[in-house]
Amino acid sequence: MAWTKYQLFLAGLMLTTGSINTLSAKWADNFKAKGCHDEPAHQFSHPFVQAVGMFLGEFSCLAVFYILLCHDKRSPEPKMNPGQSFNPLLFFPPAMCDMTATSIMYVALNMTSASSFQMLRGAVIIFTGLLSVAFLGRRLLASQWIGICITILGLVIVGLADFFNGHNGDSHKLSDVITGDLLIIMAQIIVSVQMVLEEKFVYKHDVHPLRAVGTEGFFGFVVLSLLLIPMYFIHVGDFSGNPRQVLEDALDAFCQIGHKPLIMLALLGNTVSIAFFNFAGISVTKEISATTRMVLDSLRTLVIWVVSLGLGWEHFQGLQVLGFLVLLLGTALYNGLHRPLLAMIPCCAHLVNSEEAGNPGERERLINDGRAHDGDDS
């Protein structure tokens, strides 16, 4: 069935804003500007300030929810389900997981390339699958176990690509690249814990996805903004990229923005894109399908890689292409994207039916209802 113009718009919006989210964050990292007190120009290395901006974008989804709700109530036949009343503190634990994972990922983005950053985030399906078995009592399908194994292989290939690229004189030191890659994978463990918490305690409540994203964004924005104060005094040495060598120097970030306003444009791109990306992801799931959302999310990785090559942010690495394809295959198998293709082949249709019949309750994936964990990017 052909897509409508509105569906095409939503798909394009999701792909574009999802790509902009990572690219704008990396663009900000590439700037150099003077700091406070006429300090020499240095790299804009403020991952926690960037994370605060990202949560502000998620928080704005709450405003979008109430705008849509008011508009719907004024229509002759209201169609929007606002959901049941709930205790907002239900979202506090997953919001803290989101805050921690997002902060770690922005630190890692300073150390590695945008394309590797996006590809390695595919590790989330490994940990969500394992944790869903351990804590949700879920049984994974055979294709999902195969998808997890293939994803692990893809992560190894991407890691090797970064290792060899580091030896070829890339802009990042090899030690930084390896540390960044490990931090991204560690962050995916925390993201998977967030998803399990949401599945266990949140999804049983009838909460509108935009309201859920906005509530988590509120907690993340408030808590991380307050944490910027002690971070200003925590000395971490060479690990930090700011002149004072503290965990986060928000004042230095604002001074650099003042000296180079383009940094603010990059930060705004990150904040605005995450809001639209969450909205588009939810809408794509509702108007088209969750499968389409997963395909578009995979294409986002390709767009980020191509744009990064075009801008000269990184060098072409053949192993990275292979790693992307292997990760794409693993993600497709885990999310059941192979089933529609097999169903069209008469000799293979029974395989799909037998797999689903063996685990009828496993058709619903852990990553559901179009939530966009970006950080998206959350």
Molecular structure report:
It contains 14 helices and two strands; from the N terminus they run αββααααααααααααα. It has a two-stranded antiparallel ribbon. The radius of gyration is 21 Å and the shape is globular. The chain has one domain (5-78, 86-355). With 378 residues, the protein is mainly alpha-helical.
Give the CA-based shape: globular
Terminal Cα separation, in Å? Answer: 32 Å
Largest sheet: 2 strands, antiparallel
Number of structurally distinct domains: 1
Radius of gyration: 21 Å
Q: Helix tally?
A: 14
Report the structural category: mainly alpha
| Beta-strand percent range | under 5%
Total E-strand runs = 2
* Approximate helicity band: 55-70%
Unreliable stretches covering 5 or more consecutive residues = 360-378
Subunit structure: Interacts with SLC25A5.
Subcellular location: Membrane; Mitochondrion
GO biological process, one term: positive regulation of cell population proliferation
Function: May play a role as a nucleotide-sugar transporter.
